[in-house]
């Protein structure tokens, strides 16, 4: 396995998916005492997100080629989209309100757009497109699995995460990750422009 590709994918996915922030949002959307419902929603969201990221990452590029879109054009548009996501992470405030309503939140909003939204799906294509060897693609798949499993675990432990990190800690973490994501987005745009001009 390509360790460098794994770490690169893991860090990029961690930044854009933000498992801690996702866990705090999850906590506000499900009843805190209904453990069976919490487990079901967290597992379903994790499985759906993993499947979407791997499938779109592997087959999104051929689909784009059929539509006449190059991977470098995707790098530029994806970079702009990631930068928009990063800008929102840095500048917008999020509201968390506890609910007692038992509803299915696995697909929306947990999987789409929080875990497998436009930014992370675009990132998955870019990560898989970088890897020429099967070892590199395996590393990206393992990184996606690692992030979805860690997000699942944090969602199951979200009441403790909220107690430990608090609102202020989440705000600080989200804005710091937003700055990292903005830098990653600019790098994607730079790579796309350089490759298109060659």
From TrEMBL:
Protein's UniProt keywords contain Transcription: no
Keyword tags: Cell membrane, Membrane, Transmembrane, Transmembrane helix
Signal peptide start-end: none
Transmembrane segments: 6-30, 42-60, 66-84, 105-128, 140-160, 172-190
One GO cellular component, as annotated: plasma membrane
Family: Belongs to the UPF0056 (MarC) family.
This protein's name: UPF0056 membrane protein
Organism whose genome encodes this protein: Neptunomonas marina
